[in-house]
Structure formats: C-alpha cells, structure tokens
Amino acid sequence: MRTTNPFDDDKLREECGVFGVSGTDSAAALVALGLHALQHRGQEAAGISSYDGVQFHTHRAMGHVAGNFDRDDIIRQLPGTVAAGHVRYSTTGETALRNVQPLYADLASGGFAIAHNGNISNAMRLKRDLVRRGSIFQSTSDTEVIIHLVATSSYRSLLDKFIDALRQVEGAYSLICMTPEGMIACRDPLGIRPLVMGRLGDSVIFASETVALDVVGAEFVRAVDPGELVIVQGDDIRSIRPFAPVAPRPCIFEYVYFSRPDSIAEDRSIYSVRKAIGAQLAIENPVEADLIIPVPDSGTPAAIGYAQQSGIPFELGIIRSHYVGRTFIQPGDKVRHLGVKLKHNANRALIKGKRVVLIDDSIVRGTTSLKIVEMMREAGAAEIHMRIASPPTRHSCFYGVDTPERAKLLAAKFDVSGMTDFIHADSLAFVSIDGLYKALGEARRAEIRPKYCDACFTGDYPTTLTDQDESSPVEQFSMLEERVG
Amino acid sequence: MRTTNPFDDDKLREECGVFGVSGTDSAAALVALGLHALQHRGQEAAGISSYDGVQFHTHRAMGHVAGNFDRDDIIRQLPGTVAAGHVRYSTTGETALRNVQPLYADLASGGFAIAHNGNISNAMRLKRDLVRRGSIFQSTSDTEVIIHLVATSSYRSLLDKFIDALRQVEGAYSLICMTPEGMIACRDPLGIRPLVMGRLGDSVIFASETVALDVVGAEFVRAVDPGELVIVQGDDIRSIRPFAPVAPRPCIFEYVYFSRPDSIAEDRSIYSVRKAIGAQLAIENPVEADLIIPVPDSGTPAAIGYAQQSGIPFELGIIRSHYVGRTFIQPGDKVRHLGVKLKHNANRALIKGKRVVLIDDSIVRGTTSLKIVEMMREAGAAEIHMRIASPPTRHSCFYGVDTPERAKLLAAKFDVSGMTDFIHADSLAFVSIDGLYKALGEARRAEIRPKYCDACFTGDYPTTLTDQDESSPVEQFSMLEERVG
Amino acid sequence: MRTTNPFDDDKLREECGVFGVSGTDSAAALVALGLHALQHRGQEAAGISSYDGVQFHTHRAMGHVAGNFDRDDIIRQLPGTVAAGHVRYSTTGETALRNVQPLYADLASGGFAIAHNGNISNAMRLKRDLVRRGSIFQSTSDTEVIIHLVATSSYRSLLDKFIDALRQVEGAYSLICMTPEGMIACRDPLGIRPLVMGRLGDSVIFASETVALDVVGAEFVRAVDPGELVIVQGDDIRSIRPFAPVAPRPCIFEYVYFSRPDSIAEDRSIYSVRKAIGAQLAIENPVEADLIIPVPDSGTPAAIGYAQQSGIPFELGIIRSHYVGRTFIQPGDKVRHLGVKLKHNANRALIKGKRVVLIDDSIVRGTTSLKIVEMMREAGAAEIHMRIASPPTRHSCFYGVDTPERAKLLAAKFDVSGMTDFIHADSLAFVSIDGLYKALGEARRAEIRPKYCDACFTGDYPTTLTDQDESSPVEQFSMLEERVG
Amino acid sequence: MRTTNPFDDDKLREECGVFGVSGTDSAAALVALGLHALQHRGQEAAGISSYDGVQFHTHRAMGHVAGNFDRDDIIRQLPGTVAAGHVRYSTTGETALRNVQPLYADLASGGFAIAHNGNISNAMRLKRDLVRRGSIFQSTSDTEVIIHLVATSSYRSLLDKFIDALRQVEGAYSLICMTPEGMIACRDPLGIRPLVMGRLGDSVIFASETVALDVVGAEFVRAVDPGELVIVQGDDIRSIRPFAPVAPRPCIFEYVYFSRPDSIAEDRSIYSVRKAIGAQLAIENPVEADLIIPVPDSGTPAAIGYAQQSGIPFELGIIRSHYVGRTFIQPGDKVRHLGVKLKHNANRALIKGKRVVLIDDSIVRGTTSLKIVEMMREAGAAEIHMRIASPPTRHSCFYGVDTPERAKLLAAKFDVSGMTDFIHADSLAFVSIDGLYKALGEARRAEIRPKYCDACFTGDYPTTLTDQDESSPVEQFSMLEERVG
To answer: Which family, according to the similarity comment (chains A, B, C, D) (predicted)?
Structure first.
C-alpha cells in the first residue's frame, strides 16, 4: 500500500474522486490532470474512459495517476472530446483491476460508462435480486448495481432507465456517466459527497473538488445541487431534479480532513475553516505551553489557527521525510521497531525541555498518536499536550469512507480520560461538536436536521442502512466469489 | 505473436485446447501439465479455474503455459480437487485478458466456469437478443453467450438451464464446465471438435487429445460422443444425450495438421494416418527425383510415407533453427529480406544439383511455399517438385479454426497450374479428396453424409451459418465496443 | 528524473550521502535505514556493500532506497557485520549502474570497497596518467581514480597505499572504505563535505548527517575531523592525521539548503540556523505586508524566523500536492503549460488582495521563482515581495554539488534590480554574506581564511582547480568512451 | 536455464559463438542476425559492440538474441560500420552481466573491445600476476586477462601489444577485436576453436561457423588459419602469422555435435559427416531390428545414415514438443516425475512390439539415455538397442566446452557393458575412434600428431594445462570475489 502522509495510517480515508469533461480535444489529458489534483481522494487505482463519437475507450491501472496516466501512449489510446475518470481507495469490493472505475457496459442503447464517489448502502440486497433474474456481475463493486438496474429497467429512454435505477438505490453517490448521447453528472438527494461544475473555454467540467478546477485552469461555476442531474449534450446543458426534495446533509469530514486546504466548499475556504477550528480549539481548550507543533501535514492549518489565537509560537517540531511516497518495508527483525522515524523525526534541539502542544485533525485508532507522543517524550519534551481539531470519532461511515469497524475506534472504546492514558499524553482535548459547527459559521449543531452529515461523530445516520441491518457485508460478498489470481 | 513451427505463418490454426480433471488433490497442477501438452492448439493465452468446495479460483495469462502456469505460487492460488483449463488462439473476440478462458460467472445457483473449444456460429444473433433483455457482456468471446443463456434460462435446475442454452446455439463446441455440483463435459451433436475422456487413479480427465492423457500418465478411456454430456459428481459419472441424433462430422483437418502425431483419434494413430497420406500422395503423384525433403516439422510424417512408398531417400534438406520460440523481429530495413533464413536454412551441400521433392501438409496463402521453393532454387536444386498431403484449401472454417478470408486462400484464387506458377515450383500436386479418405480407411468420400467435416476443402458446411448470412462479424462486434488499453 | 520538492527544479543539488556501520549482525539492514534518512542527498541511485569475513557482497540500483533496499531478499544477499552504502545524485560520470557506489575492486591485498561524498578536482589529470600506465577504468566516476592509485601504489601496507593515494588527490572527499581488515572513514583536510561518527550498542557508525544516526536510534559521538582517518577493526578504533594541518572550510550551503533541518552540524541545529537567517533577513530587508508565505518546503524555517522577527503572520499561501514523488509528465501539448500547478497551487482565498512576502532559501536559475510570483499574481496578491535566505549564488561548485554552468546562474547575469525584473516581483532582497555568517554566530565573514567554503557566493575557492584549468571536463571524459545501452 | 533440445540436459556444451563485420552501414543489425544463427553455441547471454568512428557502443543482455537484439531501439543504440558480437554459455566466470562479452576497455591508445570463443588455460596464473602489479579486474572472465596484458604491455604499437599478450596465453581462442584503427580476427596456433571469414558486398565478416554467413546472405571466403591474425582497416585486409608454426588440432566434437548440420568445416558438410558416422556405426555395430529411431534432434543425421546403410526403416518414434523453449518447472510434488514427457513422448502406436534402434550423438552422464530407454520400454518396445555416433566421452575439456567433472562422465565410470546396464538397454555400442576418423576421410587416427583435438575421447591434450596443474579453478577465482546481487 502506498502512503504519503506520514501519519496517515491512522486516518479515515475518502474512497474516491471523480473528474469529467465534455467538449474539448484534449479530454483525456485534462482528466488525467484533474485526477492528479484529486489523488488525495484515492491512491489505490485510477481509470479514465473517453468517447470519440463512435467508440468508448478505457484504461485502468493500479497505483497513482502519475506514472500511469502521464504517458502520451496511454493518452493517445483515449481519443475523443468527452472523458471521465476516477481515483479510488477501495471501500466495497476487493482491489482488483476489474473493480477499478469507470465501469463500462454495452447496453442495448449503446455504451455506458460510470464513475462513482460514494457508497450504495443497499447494494447487496439489490445485487441478490438482480442475480436471481439472470444478471451476471463482472466486479464486486457496489457501483455495478447501478449499471444492471439501468440495463434491466423496463423504461424506454436511457434517461428514464437511469432515473429508475437511482430511485432504487440508497446511500451516497456523486456520479459522472458517459453515454453516446452525452455526459450526465448527478448527486444523491442528501448531497453527502461533493461534486462541483466548472468551465474551461467551451468545455464543461465536473469534479469532486474545486482544486481540480484550479489545477486545470478552469473557472468554478457552482456546485451540482443535491438531487440534481446535469445533462451535457454538446453545447446544451440541462438540469433536472427527479427526486422529492429533502434537506441536504453534506459530509462535515470534508472540512476536517478529506478535502485539500486550497479547495472551496459552499463558498468557504477549507484552509480558513481549518484555521477557525484551530482557533476554536484554543478557546475551548487552552494550555500554557512554549511551542505549538503541527502533526504534519494535515494538522498544520489548525495549528496555525491555534498559535495565532493563543499567541504561542508555531514551530516545526516534527520533520517529515520527503521520501515516503512508498512505504519503506524495513528489512530484518532487529530494526523493525525503528520504522516510525523513517517517516518523521523529532526536531530534538527545538523540543528539549519545552512544553509542547501537538495539533492533529483527528484520532481514529490512536496508534500513531501514541507513537508521536512517545517520540516527543524521547526527544526531551517537558510536557506534551495533544489537541484535536474535530470531535471524537465514535461511529463507522457507510457512505464511501473507509472507517475501521467500531470496535477499533479509540473514541468508541474510551472516554477522553482513557484516551489520554492510551496515548501517554499529559493532556488531550477535542473541539466540541458545537465548536465545529461554529467554525463553519453556525451558532451550534441543530438537534433536528443538522446542516451536515456528522454521523461519524454523532451516530446520526441520514439514510436507512439496509445491508447493515440484514447481515455483514463481508459474508455476503465473498459467497461463491471467484478469486482472480 | 509467438511462433514455433518455422513455416507456420502459412498454416490454418486450431483455436483452442481444453483439459479438465475431477477428483485429485493436485488438480490445477495436472491441468497445467495437460495444457502444456496441448500448447500446439493455442499459443496466445491460457487459463485455469479450480473449485475448492467453497470458492472458485481463476488465473489467466497471455502467452504460453510454461512461464505462466509452472510456478508454485500460481498453482497454490488454485486449490481444490476439481480444475479445468484452456489454451487459446483467438478466433472471435479481440485478444485481451478478459477474453481468456475459462470464463466465469456468479449465477444465482452459484459459480459457473466454462472452457470452450469450437465456435458458435449464431453467437452475434444470440448476443443481440440478450443485450436487448438487459444482459451485460464482459468479454467479446462467443463463449459468453452460453453463460448468459444459462443465467437467464427460465428452467429450474442448472442442468436444465444448461441444456436449454445448448439447444439455442449452433456450431462447434467441446465444453468443460465447472459448477459447485460437479464437472460437465460435452460435445456438439456433430462432434466437430474432438474431446476424449481418461482416468488417472480415481480421477476423471477430459482433454482435447489423447497426447495430454499420455503426458500426465493417464489411461485413455473413450471419446466423449457427439451430442453427449458427461456429468462427474465426486465418484459418480453420468451420461446424457439431450439432442436428436445426427450423423457425426468430426473435423478431418485434425488428421492433416492440428493434432499431434502421437495422438490417437478414433483408434487411428495420427502419425500413421499422415504416413498413409504421404504414401497415397506418392501413388497419385509420383515424380523422378533424388531426394525427399520434408518441410519441417509438420511435413515430416508424410515425407517418410512418401519416401518409403517411392524408394527415394528421405533427407534433411532444410535445417530449422531451434531458436524460433519467439519471432525474431529483424531490425533495420536493409536486412529485413533475410528473415526467412533465421528460421530455416537450406542444407546447401546436400541439395546442390539434385532433383528434390518437398513434402508439406497444406498450402494456405502460399507465401511461405514460395519462399521455400526459392530457397531450394538458390541452394542449387536442379528440379523442385512440391507435393501436398491434403487437397487444396479453398474455403473458410467457421467452427473454431483461424482461416484467412477466402480471397486470400491460394487455392480459391488459382487452379493447380496457377498455384504452381505462383510458388515457382517445377511441379505441384495435392492428394485427392478421395485419396485423403482412403488414407483414413474409407473407400472414398461419400457424396451424402461424408464421414468427416471437410468444408475447408469442399465447402460442404454441416450446419447453418446464421451470423455469416446476416452480416460481417467484424462490423457487428465492433459496434460500440469498448477498447481496453 | 524523480523530484519531490515542488520547486526543486531550481535548487543546487548535493550529490551524495554515505553511511557505514561496523560491528552488528544487521549491518546491511541498518545501512538501508541510514541511506533512507539521507535520501535527500541523492535520489538517482543507491548501493550497499557488505563484508561477511570472507567475501564482499554488493547490490546497486537506480532509483530510491525505498523500493530497492527495503526487500528482505536483497538484504539477505548482503550478509556480514560490516556494511557501507551510498546515495547518489550524479556529478561527474554518466548515470549508469556501473557508476553507482560503493565501487569495488579485487586488489592483491584483498577486496576494497569505497563510498565517496565529494568531488576530486584533479581526477581527469590523474586518470590520464593511470591509463597511460595500463590501468583500465570500469566507470566514469572520479572515485575510481582513488582505487587505481591504491592498486598501483608502491607502498607495502594497504593503509600506506591509501594515504599515498589521498595525498595525490585534490578536492572534497568524505570517504567510507571497507577492506578485509576493517573500515576506514576519512575526510579531506579542508573538511568540505560533512561526516559524523555515532554509536549503536557496540557498533560504530559513520554518516553524512546526524539525522541518519537519529533515525537508526544511534547516539551521536562527534564529527570526523577534517584531515582525519578513523580506522575501525572489530572493537579497536584508531585515528590518524596524515596531512599537514590547514584551517578547515566546511560547506556553508549545508546550512542553507542541503542538510535536513533536524540535523546538527558543529553543535548547531540546522533548523535554528535557518530560522536565524530568516530573522536576519527580516532585519536587513524589512517590508510592510500582510502575510509571510514560505516557498514549500525548503523555505519554511526561514519564513517562520522572518515572521517571528517581523510580527507579520505566517500562512500557507502555497499548497503543495503530496503526490509529486514522481514528476507528472503532462500528456498533450495543449495542457503542458498547466504543469506547475500540479505540484503546488495558490491558496487563492487567502492571498486575494493581500501584500505577501515569499521566503525561499536560494535562487539558482530563477525560472521557478518567476513561476511562483506569477502564480501569486494570478491569485490576486496586491504586492509580492521575495526574500531569499542566502546571498546571490554567483559561482559554480567543484566539490560535489551539481551547479549549472555559470552562464545560467541568474545572479551571474543580473544585479539585484535585474533579478527583480526577471522574476516580476515588486521587490527582491537577499541576506548579506555577513548576515549569513552572523546567523552562524560569527561577527562577520573574515576576509582571510573565512570559516566556511562559500565559493558559490564569493568565488573564493579553497583548493586549486586542476581539471578546470586544463580543459572542459565534458570533452575529456567523453573521449573514446564506451556507451552501455 | 533455457533449453531447447529435448534431451540436451546430457550434452557437452559449446560455450561461445562470435560474429564480426566491418564495412557496412547496418553493422549491428547484421551482427544480431549472425548471432541468432549461432545461438546454438551459447544461450545464456549475448552482447554486441559497435564503433561509429568516434565512440564505442555496447549492449549486453542475459538470454537469447531474439527478444533482446531484434528491437530497433537497441540496434539504433549501436551505430557505426564496424560491429562484433558474442553469444555465451558460461565456462569460467559466474553468469553476470559484467561477464557478458564483448568486453571493453579504454586503453591509452583508445577503445578496445574483444569477443572470445575458447578458454585460456593459464588465465588464473596470469591474473594473479597482473593483480599484484596493480591491475583491477572488472569481470571474472578469463578473457579479461588478454585486455590487461595488452594494457600493460611495454610495446609501443597496439598491434605489438596485442601479439605480446597472445604470446603469454595458453589454450584455445578464436578472437574478434575492435579498435579505433580496425578489426582484428585471430585464432590460436592449434586452431582448436573454429573461425571463418566471409564477404557481403564490400564488407568483411568473421564468424564461428559458415551457417552464420548463409543466414546473412554472405559468401564464404576461407577459414582463418590457426595462428593467423587478420587485420581489417577499411578496405585493407592484412594477414600476419606471429607464432611459430605447429600442426593444427581443430576440435573433433564440432563434427559430432557442436556445429549446425548445415555448416561446412574444412570443406566438409557437417550433415554428411554425421550421416557417414551413422553409416560407419551401422557397419561396426549392426543389429537386427524393425525401426531406426533418432533421439531428436541431434541424433537425426546419424540415424538417417544408419538407416540407409542398414536398410532398416527410419521412423519418428519419439515426438518432441515444440514448446520447450523454456523449461517447464512442474508445480506440485505429485506430478514432478512426469517431467520428461513434457519434452518428448513415445509414439506408442508405432513402437509397440517392435525391435528398435535408438541413435544418439553422444552420452555424457547417461541420465537422459536411461529415461529414453525406459520411455521406449514403457511404450511396449520388444528390444531396445542404443547406438552412439561418437566414441565414449571419458575426459574433461579445458578449451571452452562445458564438461562435467570426470567423475560424472558415464564412460569414465563404466566400461561399455556397465554402461549398457546403467541405461537398461538390450545392447549399447559406440563408433570407434578410428571409425570416427574414417567418417572424416582419414584412414585412422594417427598415433603421433592426430589431425584433431580429440582429448575428450582420448585424454590426449594438445597444450599444457597450467591452471589445472596448480590448483582448482573454483578455489582461486572465488577468493575474495565480490558478488553482485
């Protein structure tokens, strides 16, 4: 597994990013750039499909966008003025090339390619019914359910078939689809996962985050609305809203960790939200100390906010190696315990004898927090205070985020005092859930219909969880499944 | 493309070989050996599926069996006491990993794996109907049609669904299928492609040719009959014949070229049949000469037969390089014409001033025959007489053999005199169609219901050719097809 | 070429790092860890040699330590209790595996392996003489000159031969050598390149920087002195000083950019020196502004120092992608100009309408400075002031640093006003040479025998430059040289 | 290890083939073709060097010529009108890329590349002396000794240095050297290994065998004489003979097995010599039998000779697989004993109940002879008579042939009766040493100065064996040797 953030072994992971463009000669090349800018949303695999007016073309690869999709020979295999792509960190479905998106099918109406960010929470129930009626699945991805629902729908037009399919699925989905007639982008009625629209010259772009628009030089137009389908056919752009309206619940963790700091969501700079959370954290949980130290790199904006609010100097107390693009598998048993230092090393001369405040964005299992605290202790810190720029993560996510099972979440096992003991810190504090909403410009979290999906902190899931209620997903999907060696 | 026979650029190609075993601990390892013995039936790709009582496992690879399936790590990924495999030279369907067999599907009844030797001649018609009803194809292989027919059949039991499917397909098929309940081997009602059954201890084996039984040390039991399904469930072996009986028409070209000389078909040694054809050729087309020279290696048995019948000495007049496992792509334009000598070289000292008879098994396009004659001429042969151990190949095959389109067949363009001119020989002669049947123990070819499928020589096809009648296969299959880079 | 720092296309490059250990069972594994910690000193290739008491073993590879030397199978090929390794960014010699160090030779006295950080400035002259006397070179590396001088020395003992060799070479060298009798570490009389000694249990370690000691959990003992040879034979450690004493001149650029911020050199924390340079820069070149923005990542410590000194807030105005371990080669001409944003993107919401101060450690060609300024301008910055934490780089380095030829150095072509125009900034300023010495605790730069080698800023080279005076190195080395494809 | 002849596990192996050309634009492409034709002389590695008038270029690769040297990109890296190449089966020196020839060195006189067929029998003695004087070896190949002798020679001109070097070496060598002044081909005074000269238009070619001339379309001119140096400088060809004349002793095993049957040596067709040996074998050792069966492929010419002489029919009783270019490593222990059948299979229907005569060219260890006899027995042969077309192989070769140590040679352990028992045959007979000379046109083997080197049969070595007399080569060469992983 590839990893780049030094401490990302203990992070929740966004599973996917999507990027599509319609109306430019360099469609696939532009998608490659856009996916590269979204690489933080999924590092296991990537894929691009293009449509040249006659045929669909697809290339998929395990690994990063760079090294796979920055080669002229690959891009030349993806001709056409319409293209869409996907980066993936697997949620459901084993990691195999046939699960890498965009998924493609030859329907009676012509080719159909789909890229999906999110997770269908009743996928297993739907799959079971489809297989009984004779559908044959080629992947173990929940996304393939949508394709079969489209293929077997009794409606006439492709658009009606597609809406028929979406009405049967529950959960989170931001989708970019390609058909011979055009590109369709859509977002589930709750808008759990993000999706934005941009323009570059005459071409229309859809992307998971605004940073991907920036990187390709495109202009941000607006977010795709929750429950909206945007249909692009050449120069014609139509919008339809086939679902009953509900209050949206976008994912709050996009602000905490998933999105890049240079993205804009709902008119807010992610960077400034994170600084505001840090400042709120300093107000709620002050401490007398000599240095504010970010846990690199995701804790840095909150640490700057905390330092500016508290007046305690911001310093680089942990130096991370630039060369952790690939995990270094340490050879030989004797040296295996030295591992963590390969990624980051205490700035010993700075820390010795000082009272330090470590700022991180979240704690999942707590294992790396423990290692960081011990590293600071070993480097001679006088006191170590850990401050976390989100509330305790107590619940699993079923909407396209890779969370460990609940039993492994530190905050599900311990209260704050127990967590403090576990990580060996002198003190530990989290921003409150209301504090988090404050940093987002709200007065507090609304009891009824809160503005965001914050189920990972509160357990308040905005949809039914059909597959969870019926059985364990692992058991179901592995039943009689073929393993491809 | 890999090639081993020095002159095989101008041969018809058998497209597939199949091998399956039920009831042994080393099932996948045994299949690997069996496929290696059948490698001459398909060199582009190979695959093995196994079933361990719970799960199916599959490994597929482009290239030869050796180098891909002789590795312990691969075989360990294929556990179970039941396994089946396939070697492939593509007929329909582009060459991509997803077309490599065995194909697999998760049906409502459980897993289903299938390996197919032959060609479904109404596959496109059937596919079009299936797609209209919502089936999604994952390959461009005609074999996948059978799987979807099984999946969508309205019969209750898997066996009934399977028979229902086979009743809808036309053409040639020798199949080995694996289901959680057992292995099914079957052969189309005309028995166009071969399939034999053997035993090794308690285990049952199915294979395209007896040589694969020899190589794994198994005993030959009998051929699977045309129109027969043999069902193996543990120790239980059942046979059913669900089709109306018709007179069989096995492929006569298996005797001419496809099968290995050490195989036995219908109680006849392929080697002795080829010698008999050579002897018949000497009787029908004698010539005064000094040397009989086989075109290596496929012409050798017939050349020995011709030499023994005629009394003219058999000599190695063409030396083939051992190192042509991979085509040598000659670099540089200036030397490109030297190509043919890399594979085989005239034994100059032997040939100079002599009248030579070259014996080959067949002529397809005639291009390499021309090169061989010129090589002999250049080496100083006084006279060059070409004798061919089969009748002129005038028609395409639609039953699982790779034939060039008719317009490229030398015998479809010219009569024997024109062919002689084309290849620059002093004389050229073919064994007659009746002579070929004589070498097989018949008095002559029967006008009505001849004993073999000899359509490539006679144009007398034993089935309807639905897809051929409707349109060109190329056009149909490429319509809206996705290209995987 | 691999690159990690987003703007490192325009940096001087340290060419090498070395690491050796004597007296532990896991010698090669420890060297792999140490080299990983020194990866910033050379990313093109790496090598490790070990000695098991009987035989020497070597593995070399192009690319990073991770991915090449973190595999158990590789480490198992490197048995023994003594090992040394090298990371390389090529200075002299083409990039080919045979140039990757450690270099090895079978001498009459036994095996001899050598890892070299630095550059021999009379290598061509010496090589020419050696070849005339019959020596055959296997690499184009300057380091091989040392081996041939040892092999052909007329002294008796290996140590005498080695000292005889070193007395003939000019330039910079920190060396780790392995012989059957023990490990020898040494540093040239001026101590231009760094080399430190540490301890881990009973074993002795030599490394280019202290960070490598930290990472393997070793204790820092002391620097190897300029002109000192340290000889380790089992438990015995001896030190000899065979050169006439001269005032040392360690490289000042190690403080500016080469060394990792968490290393300690001559009792100074690199991080704190860089902060001090930033503070000095603020004193010398103040500016009224809203934000201090580091050019990531090498400008960050100086930016913190500048911000703390000036009271202007430190903010992340440039967001760098985590996924630039490999350069993304942008496919398609149309999108090629978008390149720079893949690596780093302006934090638009933060910058718009603000007066910003960009802090970088140095300017070499000026090309990326121009891009950064333009990116800030495009993001809406009101004013852009560039401040550089080193004096203008006006001269090439001949001591093991990859510098562009003088004509390409921006500071060799323009004065500060011209440079300001070139990069399109509103203002540009450098710390003064005396200011740099001040940050290092000196009153100012001494006219006579300054404390550091600062030739890249001043042109004051501490050695003769024999090869430079005689001819161009390119011309000499390519003469009749064999190219290995 | 790659193997192609089905039974070649038990053959002596020629270690090398060489091919050089001077005076054509496509020099390297032509060398690639020539080496491909000489592939049977060495399958482990290959290399080509070219000289473009300014620089030497070299590419070396493990494995076959095809797949490595048939790529345009490789050939383009080898520009120039002069080129030489080498195929190698390692004799002395481990198998590593740096041992692959041509070897190259930068001498004071310019570049020097050398390709060597043979073995220097005093290489270790010479190497020891050279290392003592300061020479550093980069390979473990005996050939490098020649280069260092040239480099350190005190003569003035390169030609004098080269002759000085050759006068110091003992053993067998056919060499092709390239210098900036021209190409030098030479053969040791005894002419142990072959070397021929040809012409293609204006260019001059040197090759190990005439078949390589045939394949590239060149005309055979003459053999390079034993003790002759041929120097090609542009259009100028000079010949010098710097050694005292001695009676030549070319290797007799070239006729028995090494050379291709379509080569010509000393005006004799190898194919016709082998047929003559087979006929002589039939005269000396007749047997009543039904079939003559060649052990494929090397036994075939002798089998044809035996069959023609005896009147017993020649038949293909052993069918070899075309797909043994790579050894098939049989997975799983249970099936490992099935191995031999993968390569060749008894033609059961032919053999059953028959008295068969197996013809092979030689027996080395006897292990595969045993397997073949058992395969025939198992296929139902009534009697099995083995006839060998060479005398018993009783002695090792030290002139560039890979022979097992004497203790493993079947003929060194047993007399013919014991050998017959060992291989389980009904009878076994060899052609006599005088019979072998007869087939070569001599009356008998001369006691004094026999016409060929036949040491492997007689133990009569034509040179002193310095290294053998002093110690074991294994011990010497591994002393302090570096292993490259």
So the answer is: In the C-terminal section; belongs to the purine/pyrimidine phosphoribosyltransferase family.
Residue range D6-27: mean pLDDT, rounded: 82
Confidence of residue B15 (pLDDT cuts 50, 70, 90): confident
In a domain, A117, yes or no: yes
Neighbors of chain A by Cβ distance (3+ pairs < 8 Å): B, C
Chains A and B touch (3+ CB pairs under 8 A): yes
Backbone angles phi, psi at A31, to 5 degrees: -65, -40
Verify C-D touch: 3 or more CB pairs within 8 A: yes
Q: Does C79 touch chain D (CB under 8 A)?
A: no
A281 and A134 in one domain?
A: no
Size of interface A-B (CB pairs under 8 A): 117
Active-site residue (options: B16, B185, B264, B375): B16
By the 8 A CB rule, do D217 and D207 touch? Answer: no
Angle in degrees, CA D43, D46, D48, rounded to 5: 155
Give the helix ranges, DSSP H, for A322-429: 339-343, 348-351, 367-378, 410-413, 416-423
Q: What is the pLDDT of residue A312?
A: 97
Using an 8 Å CB-CB cutoff, list chain D residues near C478: 55
Residues of chain D with C-beta less than 8 angstroms from the C-beta of C98? 98
Domain of residue D86, CATH code: 3.60.20.10
On whether residue D485 sits in a domain, the answer given is no
Give the separation between CA B298 and CA D133, rounded to whole angstroms.
Answer: 61
Residues A59/A69, Cβ–Cβ less than 8 Å = yes
Total domains in the fold of chain A: 2
Q: What is the pLDDT of residue A4?
A: 35
A236 and A309, same domain (yes or no)? no
Q: Does B272 touch chain D (CB under 8 A)?
A: yes
Residues A230 and A181 in one domain: yes
Query: Amino acid letter at A454?
Result: D
| ipTM of the modeled complex | 0.90
Residue D415 lies in a domain: yes
pLDDT, residue A328, reads 54
Domain ranges, residue D297: 269-320+334-458
pLDDT at D231 over 80: yes
Overall residue count recorded for chain B in this entry: 485
A 153-182 residues with CB < 8 A to B: 153, 180
Residues A292 and A198 grouped into a single domain: no
Verify that A216 and A123 share a domain, yes or no: yes
Cα–Cα distance for residue pair C445/A292, rounded to 1 Å: 35
**Distance to chain B for D120, nearest Cα, Å:** 29
pLDDT tens digits, one per residue of A119-151: 999 999 999 999 999 999 988 889 999 999 999
The mean pLDDT value for B446-460 works out to 95
- Provide the pLDDT for residue B145: 96
CA distance to partner chain D, nearest, from residue B281 (Å): 18
Q: Which residues of B touch A180 (CB under 8 A)?
A: 480
Count Cβ neighbours within 10 Å for each residue of B54-81 and write b for 16 or more, e otherwise: ebbbbbbbeebbbbbbbeeebbebbbbb
- The Cα-based distances of A223 to A171, A174, A208, A249, D333 in angstroms read 19, 11, 9, 14, 62
Same domain? For C194 and C311 the reply is no
Once rounded to an integer, what is the mean pLDDT over residues C311-338? 69
Is there a binding annotation on residue C202? no
Residue D3: the pLDDT is: 31
pLDDT tens for each residue of D417-440: 999 999 999 999 999 999 999 999
In a domain, A483, yes or no: no
Q: Over the stretch B155-170, which tens digit does the pLDDT of each residue have?
A: 999 999 999 999 999 9
User: Under DSSP, is residue C237 helix (H, G, I), strand (E, B) or coil?
Assistant: strand
Distance between CA atoms of residues C270 and C253, nearest Å: 11
| Residue B46 confidence (pLDDT) above 50 | yes
Q: What pLDDT does residue C292 have?
A: 98
Asked if the C-beta of B138 comes within 8 angstroms of chain A's C-beta atoms, the answer is yes
Q: Which of C8, C11, C16, C227 is catalytic?
A: C16
Do A154 and A245 belong together in one domain? yes
What integer pLDDT is reported at residue D5 of this predicted model?
42
Structure tokens at A135: 């559908």
Within the 294-333 window of chain B, which residues sit less than 8 Å (CB to CB) from chain D?
297, 300-301, 304, 308, 313-316, 319, 321-332
Query: Do residues A298 and A164 share a domain?
Result: no
Cβ contacts of C267 on chain A, cutoff 8 Å: none
pLDDT beyond 60 at D129: yes
